[in-house]
Amino acid sequence: MAERTTLDTKLRTIVAKAATPLAKKDLVTVRDLLEFYPRTYLDPARPTDFSTLGEGEPVVVLADVQHAVTRKMRQRRGSMLIATIQDGLGNALELTFFSAWGHEKALVPGRRILVSGTVSHYGGKRQLTHPEYEVLGTGAKATSTFGEGPIPVYSQVPAMTSMKVAAAVDLVLHALAEVPDPIPVAVRAKHGLPPLSNALTMVHQPRSTQEQRKARWRMKFQEAFVLQAALAVMRQSSDAVPAVPRPAVPGALADQFRERLPFELTQGQEQVLAEITGDLERTLPMHRLLQGEVGSGKTVVALLAMLNVIDSGGQAALLAPTEVLAVQHHRSMTAMLGPLAEAGMLGGSTDGTRVALLTGSQSAAERRRNLLMAASGEAGIVVGTHALIQEHVQFAELGLVVVDEQHRFGVEQRDALRAKVDGASPHTLVMTATPIPRTVAMTVFGDMETSTMTEVPSGRQPITTHVVRGDQSTWVQRTWERVAEEVAKGGQVYVVCPRIGQDDDPDLPGGTDIGPGGPITFEGNDAEEDSAPLHGVLQVERALRELEVTADLRIGILHGRQAADDKEATMRAFGSGEIDVLVATTVIEVGVDVPNATQMVIIDADRFGISQLHQLRGRIGRGTKPGLCLLMSQAAESQSLERLDAVASTTDGFELARLDLAQRREGDVLGATQSGARSSLRLLRLTRDEDLITLAHEDAWQVVGEDPDLTNHPELRAELDRIDAERAAFLERG
Ligand code: ADP
Ligand code: MG
Q1: pLDDT above 80 for 608
Q2: What SUPFAM superfamilies does UniProt report for this protein, alphabetically (predicted)?
Q3: Which residue, judged by its Cα, is nearest atom 3 of ligand 1?
């Protein structure tokens, strides 16, 4: 007996020859093909409007045969056939067949046909050469299996027409046995959802538009539901390992530190801190996402939470996304803590602690010393980059993991540190300055509670942003004059470039004789060159040194190819005001905090995303003086300029995040491992499906909450296992 057909059955056992072209489109299993949802549907009662068809494009049209003529061929034997089809709106299209054979009987005037081909022009007429077609209808001449319902149109599969794809789907649907449904019956009943088997048929072979919509909604809901269930299960399993409660200890380090603070906490900071300390008192591990607007003061909050944990006997790890940021955190926390971070040292506080730092570029001895401080518990706080801490550090008693500026990491990374603690879960605090729209928060951080700080400390000065078009040389020139003026007033300036560049890069246009017009005149002037070379740090540094207005300034550079020592020295020099202008790549994007920096020039600004520009800009206006951000761009496309204008028009991070999300694809939002090679998200759009995600979130968390092991939901369990395995395989392949 043949094996039962399931969603995992290979297509080649069912569709024979079509399996080869389908595999080219990565459609290998029954599931792959059935999740290859129609791109759109045609109404069989309504011919396609031909005026919308683009030339050279593969099209699928529904039309009526107007007439057909057969002509003897002059050059060779046989006859050709030209049929004219019309769309009922006055537009005609010619179908040309170089052999009339078989078509004469089918293409009879008055018949409605479904045609697939590529539009071309010939003799002033639009035509399809050798298209494939099916005759619709119920009569004996009908060659189509499509009924009265909407006709599915599939995205292009090389060497297959949409009709052939539909035929393969038809074979598969007939072969397929009842499939297990990952959505529990009760949830289906609640929303009136059809069972999976039916939904798959309804989405590919709907009898009505209503049926098609219903099925599609169900499949979309399933994507959201399964994703939420996966997050819920993950959360359940980590909750199953209790955390050590870390209640505040009055009068200890946290309190002493608060007394030392030169400022009052904002209301937002107070509130978030209260939420965190509340979490820390419990045996349920904290999973909190702190979203705080750029410059809202997240570090102090995190530091207070860490001290809290130290006070009750634990250690805290602070994971930074870059080495520059790790070093800066170490330096600024050590400074803020003062004597409190000098335990065991002369003049240090008796019940103080130590802050250890781990970076990739420390000397072996230095690293050993810091590792020892972590392992012995002498260091209450261990700061480092994600990779380093995750891989190498032993803690005496890790109680809290703070992940700073996590806006590019999937769910997996957060879990890695849990393994560091035997028998107990550490509490986790994830901080991000990229405001995360609700749907993304629910999808990527669906397993976390959220705290939000929108307020920035009072007295903070506003940032003004302008777009400077590279082709307006007077403005470009003015920009560099502004830089020089800012420095003259005692301010400091960041100049951000999209790449590092090479020592031997050609000089910027204008070369050494950069006169009025400025060094960055951009090659955008010649309009054909739309991929003008991006400006590199090394190039721009050189140009600024040669430009009259900026030549006397103290210019430093910072980028990823430098040795860590150099980077650190430069940051320190910029921090202490010994460098006026820092030309850098986006290494300064997150977290870097130099209050005296008041101006930023972002070169080739169109190369950066909205959130990234907002982040970058957040490096200025952190002190008491207002900030000025100049976005230089030679982009000509209106879309890029619109993006820059949007960034210039508001400093509301949430507003910008919404805009940003609307412009991105889901994979970018969720990260590679979330989306995977074969993303489980086909229909779901984080930007548009907020309501649906909210419903799925509630249902999934309830189902998992009531039945953490999913004993009563083996189909859902199996689906989660399948996705896990797929993701693991994807990660393995790299
Ligand atoms: P972000 O949330 O972007 O990480 P930081 O934590 O780096 O912001 O804080 C930005 C700056 O604001 C730091 O210099 C910090 O010392 C300062 N700061 C934090 N909280 C306050 C406050 N309540 N009042 C005044 N300044 C503050
Ligand atoms: Mg920060």
Answers
A1: yes
A2: Nucleic acid-binding proteins, P-loop containing nucleoside triphosphate hydrolases
A3: 295
Angle 716-722-728 from CA coordinates, rounded to 5°: 135
**CA 269–ligand 1 middle distance (angstroms):** 10
Beta carbons within 10 angstroms of residue 537's beta carbon: 26
Which residues, other chains included, contact 490 with Cβ-Cβ below 8 Å and sequence gap of 6+? Answer: 596
Q: Which amino acid is at 529?
A: E
Structure tokens at 179: 């499939």
The angle that helices 298-311 and 323-337 make with each other, rounded to 10 degrees, is: 60
Question: What local confidence, expressed as pLDDT, does residue 514 receive?
Answer: 26
- The residue to which tokens 């009052």 are assigned: 264
Secondary structure (DSSP) of 542-573 = HHHHHSTTTTTS-EEEE-TTS-HHHHHHHHHH
- Whose CA is closest to 39, among 151, 176, 115? 151
Dihedral angle over CA of 111, 116, 120, 124, nearest 10? 10
| CATH number 2.40.50.140 is the correct assignment for the domain at 45-145 | yes
Per-residue model confidence (pLDDT) at position 600? 96
Ligand 1 centroid–CA 622 distance in Å is 8
What confidence tens digit (pLDDT) does each residue in 404-450 have?
866 554 444 455 555 555 678 899 998 887 667 777 777 777 778 88
The pLDDT value recorded for residue 642 is 85
Dist. CA 603–CA 584, nearest whole Å: 10
What's the CA gap between 291 and 419, in Å, rounded? 25
Nearest CA to ligand 1 atom 23: 265
Which CATH code of 3.40.50.300, 3.30.930.10, 3.40.50.410, 3.40.50.720 fits the domain covering 463-650?
3.40.50.300
Distance 465 CA to ligand 1 centre (A): 21
DSSP 29: B
> How many beta carbons lie within 10 A of that of residue 197, not counting itself?
15
Q: How far apart are CA 720 and CA 726, in angstroms?
A: 10
Superfamily (CATH) of domain 253-453: P-loop containing nucleotide triphosphate hydrolases (3.40.50.300)
